[in-house]
User: What shape does this take?
Amino acid sequence: MNVITTFKEKKVQKQLSYERKMLREISLESLKEKINHSFGSYLRSKTLFVTSIEEGCMDIAIEAFLLGARNSRFGYYGESVESVKQRSYYDLKYLTDHLYDFITYWTHAGDYDMVSEGLYYTCEHYVDSWWNEGFIKGEKRYRLKLH
Assistant: This one.
């Protein structure tokens, strides 16, 4: 007797396997280093909840990294980085908005009168840099036929 599987199940299993392989490419130290580089001075001066904000930033970084890695196959097949980034514009925008809302909630504790435009651009740059890193590492895996 054979086990019957659907294409959806097979696709999900393949995607999870690929994501596990890609997560081996990043380290906890690099995550913390980029958080401190991007938000370090801002977080130290505005809040006492630095560890909880760092965890949220790590989650967003991992999501952006995996999004870039998933879209790297388009770059491997000859599409430019900017056109691939346009494919995932809404996902990147969602991640940026989510990170910005998360940080403003924890730093201002409900005081939304002080909206920082600079913080939004920092969040946008942070998400974009992790997307680019995932894209580059994923494209490298495709070139080496490790996908």
Summary: The chain is about 80% helix and 0% strand. The radius of gyration is 18 Å. Helices lie at 7-23, 28-46, 50-70, 72-76, 81-87, 89-108, 117-143.
